[in-house]
Automatic annotation (TrEMBL):
Keywords annotated in UniProt: Glycosidase, Hydrolase
Family: Belongs to the glycosyl hydrolase 20 family.
Domain Beta-hexosaminidase bacterial type N-terminal: 6-129
The protein's name in its UniProt record: beta-N-acetylhexosaminidase
Glycoside hydrolase family 20 catalytic domain residues: 133-474
Reactions it catalyzes: Hydrolysis of terminal non-reducing N-acetyl-D-hexosamine residues in N-acetyl-beta-D-hexosaminides
Pfam families named in the record: Glyco_hydro_20, Glyco_hydro_20b
Highest taxon in the source lineage: Bacteria
InterPro entries linked: Beta_hexosaminidase_sua/sub, GH, Glyco_hydro_20_cat, Hex-like_dom2, HEX_bac_N
CDD domains: GH20_chitobiase-like (cd06563)
EC annotation from Swiss-Prot or TrEMBL: 3.2.1.52
Amino acid sequence: MNEPVTSLIPLPRAVSGSAGSFRLETTTSLSADPGAEAVSGWLRAALGPATGYPLPPGEGGIRMRLDPGLPPEGYLLDVTPAGVHIAGGSAAGVFYGAQTLRQLLPPAALRRAAISAGPWEIPAQRVTDEPRFAWRGVLLDVARHFMPVSDVLRFIDLAAFHKLNVLHLHLTDDQGWRIEVPGLPRLTEIGSWRSTSMLGSRGHERYDGRPHGGYYTTTDLREIVAFAAARHITVVPEVDMPGHMQAAIAAYPELGNGFAGPVRSAWGISEHVLNVGPEALDFCRAVLDHVCGVFPGELVGIGGDECPTTEWRDSPSARERIRAEGLAGPHELQPWFTARLAEHLAIRGRRLFGWDEILAGGAPPGAVVAAWRGREPTTHAVRAGHQVVACPDIAVYLDYRQSDDPGEPTPVGTRLALADVFAFDPVPDGLSESEAALVLGGQANVWTEHLESARRVDYQAFPRLCAFAETVWGPPGRDFAGFSARLPAHLARLDALGVGYRPLTGPRPWDARPDAPGHPRDLAGRLAELHEMTAGLRRVAT
C-alpha cells in the first residue's frame, strides 16, 4: 500500500493511500458528466502544454461528475491504477478536486511548455475534502500601482490554485482611478495617472519623478470577471466612497469641497473627499450603475474607510445637508451618505460591502463588513447582526514586513512571518455559535503602495498566501510544523508556476529596496493605535 501524498496545500480533510499508481499516457481520456464539462475543458487546457497529451473525450482515464450528496464546494478524488474519479458537490467542488489532481502530479506538469516526457504518475489514494469557510478571499490593490490585465489574470490563477474563491479588486483611490465610466471621460484622462510616486514610507518624503498610470476598459474588466468565473472566483469590485477620492476630484473638481489639484502622489490619507451635494451623489450612483453592469456578483464594495470630515466642517453644502437631514454634525454625514448608496444598490439587487468604519453610526441593513482594524471589529460587526469578512491588518496584510531582516524590501507595518499568517483564525474567541455563523470567512489583503510590479507582489504574497489558504480552507486545529514540512514540496510547484516567492531563508541581496526605505512598527504600538481607532465602536456597543 502506498503512503498517501502529504505535501498538498491546503491540506485536505482526509487522505488515505492504496496500492499502485495511475499513469497519465498519450491515450488517457477525460470525460465529464453534465455540469462538469467546463471544468474538464479547463483541466485539459491546463495539463496539455506541459504533458503534450490531448486528453480527448472518452471513457476511462479521468472522469468528472457532480454528486449532490457532497457539500457544495466539497469533492472526492479517487485515484486507482485503473483511472481517476473526481466528484464534486458542484462544479466548484469538481474544480477543487482537479486542482488537487494537479498538485499530485510532478511539478513539471504545471509548466507552460513541455520540458519533460514524464512519466506522469499519480500515487493511488483517496482524498475527501471540503472548505471550512465560504469566503476565502484575497484583495489586490490595483489603484496605488496599476497592474496590467495579464498580471491580474496570473494572480487569479495563483489564487485559484490555492482554492481561494474571492478576488476583492481595489479599483480606485486617492492615487489613481482605474476604470472607465461612460460619460465621465476625465476619470481616465486625468484621474488614472499621477506625475510621480512616493518611494518608500511617506515619512521619508522621497519621490521617483516618474509618471505612473493605467486603467481598465470595460472589456478588460469583463475579461477579468470571466477568467475568474471559469476558476470559480467571484470578483468583488471596490470603488472607494466618499473618502479616498482625490483622483476623482482631480478629474471633476465640482465633486469636492473646493479642492482643485492633481491626483495624489503621496501615500496616506487625503483630506480631499466628496461633497455631499446632489451632484456628488449622482456621480456615485452613475459609477455604481456601471460597476453593477460589469460585475455580476451580489456584493459591491464602496470602501467607506478613512474618510476625514475636515472639509465638511467648513463646507456650506455640508452644513446645508446636515440641517436638511436633521443630522447632529459632520460625523453623521458619512453614515447618511453610505445609507443612500446602499439604497441605490438595493434597487439593483445588490448589497453593500464596506470596511469596518461603516459600523460607526450604524451600517446599512444587509451590509457586509470587511473587518480590518484588528480583531475587535469582527466581534462588533456580528453582534450588530452583520455578516463579516475578517481581514485584520495585524494578521493578513501581506504588504507588511515578513521579518526583522534589514534586507526586507520597504519594511512597513508589524512583522507578519509565515507562522503569524498561519495562526490567523477568522472567528474571534468569545462568539456564540449564531454569531460565529455570521463570519463568512477571511481575506488576505495585498496593498501595493510599495509593490510596483508583479514581481514585488509575488515576494510579499508567497508563500504567506499559501499559509492563509490553509487557514480558511482547513479546520480550526492546525499544525504549523506539519505545514512547514509540506511547504518545500509546494515551493517546487510555485517554481514551476513561475512565482517569485520570498525564500524561506530570507531576502536575497537583490530583494532589498534601499532607495525606498520603510517604517517598521512594533505590535504593541499598533495594537494600542487600533484600540484607539475603534473606540467609537465600543461606545456604540455599550
